[in-house]
Amino acid sequence: VNLGWAVDRMMAVATGQCCQVGSTLQRVHEEMVAEALRIEAEDREACSAIGAFGQDLVPEGANVLTHCNTGMLCTAGIGTALGVVIAAHRAGKRPHVWVDETRPVLQGARLTAWELGKLGIERTLIADVAAGSLMARKEVDLAIVGADRIAANGDVANKVGTYPLAVLARYHDVPFYVAAPVSTIDLSTPTGADIPIEERDPAEVTSPLGFDLAEPGTPAANPAFDVTPAELVTAIVTDRGVLRPPYGPALRGLSSTRGAA
Amino acid sequence: VNLGWAVDRMMAVATGQCCQVGSTLQRVHEEMVAEALRIEAEDREACSAIGAFGQDLVPEGANVLTHCNTGMLCTAGIGTALGVVIAAHRAGKRPHVWVDETRPVLQGARLTAWELGKLGIERTLIADVAAGSLMARKEVDLAIVGADRIAANGDVANKVGTYPLAVLARYHDVPFYVAAPVSTIDLSTPTGADIPIEERDPAEVTSPLGFDLAEPGTPAANPAFDVTPAELVTAIVTDRGVLRPPYGPALRGLSSTRGAA
Fold first, then answer.
1. What is the pLDDT of residue B261?
2. Which end of chain A is more exposed for a tag (fewer CB within 10 A), N or C?
3. In this predicted structure, what is the pLDDT of residue A254?
């Protein structure tokens, strides 16, 4: 949703400029570059704000579980969920991160673990299935993830594996946080039930990065995302502040303040 | 536990034979081979009995979720959890199996999916993280897994990833079954809290089958097993019948009837 929102902003600038008397292709180009740089600057600021609001939720020396990649490699700033960890680290809280490898595409193993290493933040990679026993052994103080889309009621679509993590967190009384900029809120989607789940290439399951894990031709299913119901989300950390349930009124209020959306 | 139990039986035969007047190495060898063949035959029968008892729990056309490998490749017979599926298939119930790939060692992707294909049983491989959204979409009718050890109170140690599956099954009101021969019951272990969890080579997480998924040197944790509390287990399918909670008295009764243990 965040990506679509940015494309909409770019298209609005392009269309608006093209309609002006005396406009040139050169001028359209300049205005679009300027808008792209504004979006970049705003995203950097949004990440910093998410980090600042979110790090209040991270106790000193916390064991933080995260899923997928949500840091500097996928935003213009310090990130969303990982931005919160980075802000806590910069505040001297010495967090340790359990990094879900995030099958099937392995963003945790390939990106998040690497990124945290570069930043000097203590981290331990795990197979996604290990999260349950870590929680049972009380080795997880909080879980924090990003979002691809937040529906008007607070339901969250995110990388597959987010929802089971939220269920486990609830079962173990571990706080489960979602961190995302306001531009991820989609008020045109009433609930998570209205979010279509993309089914991706089964080869991501059977042969990740081209390496065969199963016999070629094995039937596989590969839902790219899942939906976490709002009732399992302890709080939503945005660039405008931390939201608590019930999310509906809070999201409507915040969303109306966002840029050109 | 099942493996240790079989080794104990073999050692008892060897020791007993060696102590007899006039015994020869040849005679010890013959008696041990005979005992091994008895264990094999008993295991084959135990699997068939588990299948026969368990298939009553499988509805016509059921979508069955399973974890790890529990079939003909790891028993002398049709298997434990997978034996139940095979028995249901042979009874004409046309089950469809969701096969957890079972990170980190991928027994589901490499063995179970292959084995079901050979048997002509419909199956779909999934990343372990997809189980939650399948349950949310009501595409799982039951989950069934094996066991490495069943404690005296019914707590179950099994491949890592079993416990989160049990939590998800409870959250979605999906029956969660454990299938294992009586020789897996360990009355000397009071509860799951008394079961040590083996921590295996982190390279299984970072570089499965020798293929690097994460930067070499990335710290990783790799618990091989997890413990599912008895309260999350709908029923335990054994070769002597289907046990329902409370498991303590039922397990004590059954265990006393097993072979040379």
1. 35
2. C
3. 84
pLDDT over 80 (residue A257): no
Environment class of A188 (CB within 10 Å of its CB; exposed 0-12, middle 13-18, buried 19+): exposed
More confidently predicted of A23 and B83: B83
Contacts of residue B109 in chain A, CB cutoff 8 Å?
205-206, 213-214, 218
Q: Which two tokens stand for residue A2?
A: 């965040």
A198: DSSP letter:
P
User: Are residues B97 and B121 in contact, defined by beta-carbon separation less than 8 angstroms?
Assistant: yes
**Which residue from A98, A117, A163 is facing B133, i.e. has the nearest CB?**
A163
Encoded tokens for B53 = 């008892």
Strand partners, A172: none
* Residues of B with catalytic roles: 148
**Which of A101, A117, A168 is nearest residue B205 as measured by Cβ atoms?**
A101
User: Across all residues in chain B, what is the average pLDDT?
Assistant: 94
DSSP letter string, B63-120: EEEE-S--STTTSSSS-SHHHHHHHHHHTT---EEEEE--TTTTHIIIIIHHHHHHHT
Please name the residue of chain B whose CA is at the shortest distance from the CA of residue A222.
Answer: B126
Separation of alpha carbons B250 and A166, rounded Å: 34
> Per the CB < 8 Å rule, is A205 touching B102?
no
Is the CB of residue A100 less than 8 Å from the CB of residue A128? yes
Q: Which residues pair with B226 in a beta bridge?
A: B158
Closest to A162 (Cα-Cα) out of A228, A69, A85, A245:
A228
